[in-house]
Design a protein that fits this description.
The complex is a heterodimer of chains A (about 270) and B (about 300). With about 270 residues, chain A is of the alpha/beta class. Chain A contains ten helices and five strands, in the order αααβααβαβααβαβα. Chain A is globular and about 50 Å long. Chain A starts with a helix and ends in a 6-residue tail after the last helix. The mean pLDDT of chain A is about 95. Chain B is α/β, with parallel strands linked by helices and about 300 residues long. Chain B has two domains: about 150 residues, Thiamin diphosphate (ThDP)-binding fold, Pyr/PP domains (Rossmann fold), CATH 3.40.50.970; about 130 residues, Rossmann fold. Helices cover about 40% and strands about 20% of the residues of chain B. Chain B is built from twelve helices and twelve strands. In chain B, strands 2-1-3-4-6-5-10 form a seven-stranded mixed sheet, sandwiched between helices. A five-stranded mixed sheet of chain B has the order 7-9-8-11-12, with helices on both faces. The longest helix of chain B has 14 residues. The model of chain B has no long low-confidence stretch (mean pLDDT about 95). Classes of the chains: A alpha/beta (about 270), B alpha/beta (about 300). Chains A and B meet through helix 5 and helix 6 of A and helix 3 and helix 5 of B.
Chain lengths: ~270, ~300
């Protein structure tokens, strides 16, 4: 997909995410908005995944280790035809397949039931290891939160992957610098983040996580170095696209009131919805 | 028990290329044959139990059958949430194998004892738990684990467990085994301690008390019928476990009895809200912690008298 079309898609997805969460009455809005461009590029330009090949053992895999951002993933999976777009209107409601964290047995296209942090990443390393064992060419992309990197299990897997030369594994960190209630730097800082991963043996790149040309180029160039796992630090803005949510910690899990909703709708180009 | 498991794992791996052995920095020497013949299917995950379990789930999602092995307490307690979310919730075909059940690692102390693992793992949906008593039962439980499509916890003591079963023993998942028949009381036990109970039952016989001994090798799903029949036939049930009595085998048996309105005379013997104490040999540990043959005999005598 061309960059211009990707921009259109990203805009559309932001609207879908916001509308879905508002209808569902609750969700992690800013954490979903910071990963829109990452998912857009992956699902439209990079991943060999489609509703048709979702059971094919040779497919690429995408794992959302930061499971709380699932509405962004739901929006893109619905757009790619994994399930009906109408299902989005049922998000979080009785009888829905779509909950506040993704369920692999309910939602087509979901590879792992994540939610507790620090699970999806080692799970993805297991898939990458299986690919190496079976000499398959699929690639595994795992999206982690920056706050998630405070979990010890992340670093256990960070040690494991280079040891086993899992160059088919790409970890992307949504580095929006905010965790649930505060800036990472005020809680437990990850700095220097790139140096940490480099020291662990990962080939590391840093990109603007909202620049789809940069994202496209970096995803297209994995593996960066043969025999080394890939780490992409995507610098993002939590709440991107809704001015009053951007970089404001309190919005991590908060619903806007009617007035705020109207502003957000306007900013997202959803007037009258 | 450990060697019986490893021999069977070797045979299973020879027949099925999807079987993968994962360890968390254990199994020096004992895994040598397996490592020699299946080097690409032996992964030492290092001292990272949480990573080992999530990794195993990822492997299983691609059709592999990981057998993840380490010391039982580290396996079930350090990696509990991984077992819960990545194996049980996602119904992944992973076998977790905990070595050193109970306080068999006697002098290493309570940090190395698996004395609360049954309580924890029994609470998880979709999990099967095997707790075999001797090498032959271990072999059969290992085969049964591989045949189940889903998570299994195989709870093993260690080397040097005495033989209890003869070669023709038939292992049935979810079915308790009556090792001795008796009419005055039924003793229900699991794992390595069953051998001690067997000695106690012989002693009781000399004292004129007829005790039935039931071995529960499948803790989950538990054999309700054999428990209820024992309650009906004998009127008294004693559970014996090398484990806390809070939530362990005794609790599982009590749940069956109460759910079925049984008013049988009932007692649980095991670690009563304490960690196993003392150092010494495994035999000495049983004495220190009130689980020797004579302790069991005394408890039974009291139960019968009252």
């Amino acid at each position: 997909m061309k960059t211009l079309d990707l921009h259109k898609k990203a805009k559309e997805l932001r609207r879908t995410i916001f509308r879905t969460i508002c209808k569902g009455g609750g969700g992690h809005t800013p954490s979903s908005l910071s990963i829109v461009e990452i998912l857009t590029v992956l699902y439209y330009n990079i991943l060999n995944i489609s509703p048709e090949n979702q059971r094919d053992s040779a497919r690429d895999r995408f794992i959302l280790s930061k499971g709380h951002s699932c509405v962004a993933l739901y929006a893109i999976l619905a757009d790619r035809g994994f399930f009906n777009k109408e299902d989005l209107d049922t998000f979080g409601r009785k009888g829905s397949i779509l909950g506040g964290h993704p369920d692999m047995y309910k939602v087509p296209g979901i590879e792992a039931s994540t939610g507790a942090l620090g699970h999806g990443f080692p799970f993805g390393a297991g898939i990458a290891l299986a690919g190496k064992m079976d000499k398959k060419n699929y690639r595994v992309f795992v999206l982690l939160g920056d706050g998630e990197c405070q979990e010890g299990s992340v670093w256990e897997a960070a040690l494991f992957a280079p040891q086993h030369k899992l160059d088919n594994l790409t970890a992307i960190i949504d580095y929006n610098k905010l965790q649930a209630i505060d800036w990472l730097d005020n809680v437990i800082s990850l700095k220097p983040l790139a140096d940490k991963w480099k020291a662990f043996g990962w080939e590391t790149r840093e990109v603007d996580g909202h620049d789809m040309t940069e994202l496209n180029n970096v995803f297209k160039s994995v593996p960066f170095v043969s025999g080394k796992p890939n780490l992409i630090i995507a610098h993002t803005i939590k709440g991107k696209g809704i001015s009053f949510m951007e970089n404001v910690p309190i919005w991590h899990y908060r619903m806007p009131n009617e007035e705020e909703m109207a502003i957000a709708y306007k900013e997202l180009g959803l007037e009258g919805s | 028990m450990r060697n019986a498991y490893l021999d069977e794992l070797y045979d299973l791996a020879r027949k099925d290329e999807d079987i993968i052995a994962l360890v968390a920095d254990n199994g020096a020497i004992v895994y040598d044959k397996y490592r020699r013949d299946f080097p690409s299917r032996f992964i030492n995950c290092g001292i990272s139990e949480a990573n080992m379990i999530s990794l195993a789930a990822g492997l299983a999602s691609c059709g592999k059958i990981p057998f993840a092995y380490t010391i039982g307490c580290f396996l079930t307690m350090r990696a509990f949430e991984q077992i819960r979310n990545d194996l049980c919730l996602q119904r992944m075909n992973v076998k977790i194998v905990g070595i050193g059940a109970g306080f068999v690692y006697s002098s290493l102390g309570p940090t190395h004892h698996a004395t609360e693992d049954i309580t924890l793992i029994r609470s998880l949906p979709n999990m099967t738990i095997f707790s075999p008593v001797d090498p032959l039962e271990t072999k059969k439980a290992t085969i049964a684990s591989a045949q189940i499509d889903g998570p299994v916890y195989l709870r093993l003591a260690t080397g040097g467990t005495p033989k209890i079963y003869k070669e023709d023993y038939e292992f049935k998942v979810g079915c308790g085994v009556t090792l001795r028949d008796g009419t005055d009381i039924a003793i229900i036990a699991t794992g390595g301690i069953v051998y001690e109970v067997l000695k106690a039952v012989d002693e009781l016989e000399r004292l004129g008390i007829s005790a039935r001994l039931i071995n529960i090798h499948t803790i989950k799903p538990i054999d309700k019928e054999i428990i209820l029949k024992a309650a009906h036939d004998t009127g008294a049930i004693l559970t014996v476990e090398e484990h806390t009595i809070i939530g362990g085998l005794g609790s599982a048996v009590a749940e069956v009895l109460l759910d079925n309105k049984s008013s049988v005379k009932f007692k649980r013997l095991g670690l009563n809200n304490v960690f196993a104490s003392g150092y010494g040999s495994y035999e000495e540990m049983k004495e220190i912690n009130g689980l020797s043959k004579m302790d069991i005999v005394e408890v039974v005598k009291k139960m019968i008298k009252n």
